[in-house]
Amino acid sequence: MARIFKEEDYAAHRNEILDVARQLVYTKGYDAMSIQDILDALKISKGAFYHYFDSKQALLDGMINRMLDEAELVMRPIVNADLPALEKFRRYFDTGGRWKTAQKALMIGILRAWRADSNSLMRHKQESAAMKRIAPMLAQIIHQGIAEGVFTTQYPEQFGNMILGISRGFEDTISDLLLADKPPPDALEQLTAVMGAYSDSMERLLGAPPGSLPVGDAEMLKEWLEAP
After folding, report:
1. Which residues contact 196 (CB under 8 A, 6 or more apart)?
2. DSSP labels for 107-133?
3. Taking the model in full, what pTM does it have?
4. Which of 110-114, 151-155, 192-196 is least confident?
5. Which of 141, 154, 106 is nearest to 213 (CA)?
């Protein structure tokens, strides 16, 4: 019983640090946030902080991992729901997009840090971890779609990974526009075109009916282009 209490206590204190770090990313941005800011907010020592995270980059990794945990909690019920495969895909992308939009400031703050050259190795590790957790959920939907006759691919396991690869390119293009000091006047048109190309690519890869897999809408894109 004592061991369980210590594990729960450890997790609770670690989450307190992550909560404060998330709030500081909202208010100051990741680059401007310092470990001292966290120490001051929680009234803890450096030793207490380093008991849970050995660096600021490890803290960022912790924030990303917790976001993956939260994302899986949101997406898993959709994957396991009693719904047709096409509807699952539509809800998967719509729910995922709205989940990210709801915490836009945090996402952009982390994204700025994540794209820095100094974080390239950690970014690669994090992308690999995300691939292992998310690709199987996509493969599960693809298997169902094949059984229902709406997808024609013969490689459901591989296409789970490929869809995430395409998604990464899609998100990189969007990030370039969102992180620009001054987005171009036609930013919305560019985002809409990229989103359409992403949908079209997925439909072609899976052999799905044209127009059956939209991945977002114009209103969501407009919200991303507004200042956090």
Report:
1. none
2. HHHHHHHHTSGGGHHHHHHHHHHHHHH
3. 0.74
4. 110-114
5. 141
